[in-house]
Specification:
19% strand; eight-stranded mixed sheet; alpha/beta
Amino acid sequence: MKLRIVCPALAALALGHALAGCRSTTTAAKPSFTLAWSEYPSWSVFGVAHEKKLIDGDAGKLGRLEEKWGVDIVLKQADYEPCLQMYGSGACDAVCITNMDVLTPALGRKSVAVLPTSTSVGADACIVVGINDVKQLRGRKVHGLSKSVSEYCFVRNLEKLGEKESDFQFTNMDPGEAAKAMQTDQKDYQAIMVWNPFVLQTLKLRKDAKVLFDSSTIPGEIIDMVVIGKDSLGKPGGRAFSCAVIDTYYELNKMLEDKTTGNDTLVALGAKFSSLGLDEMKKVVEQTRFYKTPKEGMDVFKGEQLQKTMTTVVDFCVSHDIVKKKPSIAYTAAQDAQLVFDASMIDEVQKKTK
């Protein structure tokens, strides 16, 4: 399960020798690179790709797409915050991360976003009990994870509804605990701001609960991505590694779209995302919209909307003390910046697979 937490300070030193095993190694045959991922619908794709033999996530073993690109992909699965720490400290080459959470590590490690995997269109939601409109939320505690996409989604919805953030009480709480409190009808938990699977679970267990608003009002603003360190991208085989990861993602999406393999593949994803079944996963992937094809991915990274979105996201993170300062951001590989959105490798994969 993905805990999409923004870490203002990445605890690199605290990781120490515990993360030493996550550093890139080189096999005799192929250059080796590590991808850190946590359980979330569009990131669990890589774990399923290992099971389906598209790639082999173990060091020194190659699946057919690794053979195709001439690299060894080593998968490192962990909870979300440790993945952020691994990436920020340089203990892995690439990471599955959101466009909001990448801002802090990018200040210390130049980063290249190479693949958008999905966007939240209802997977993040404000769930209420006994409240009929946003004005009734004024003065009430809304429990959710502060300095995260939950708070971002909450504030953006207030803006769209013409409300002032200062009139509301967003109260920091672990999303799992907040959901559990509402599910068990604990006192003073009439409003929570959480993400899936907590959204689905809460609505299932509390029949009087409902969604007041959700991330469907801000499509394309919360973007799940794969990001690689510019230092790793510059190593021999770095670009091929990035292409192999991208190719893997789109190949697994083809399996999801195929009528003969789609349900089985979706069940396999659900097994890695809070053990959800087929029907629940069908709902999950409606609310977490995958960028399924190279065209969709390039449209995101090369579209005008991304620059507007990132301005909004960065301004929010600075104003809410999530990042110390604005990182420099570029939208083509030709520009040098702390964070670059680079669609060129998606294009390379598309051309090679035609």
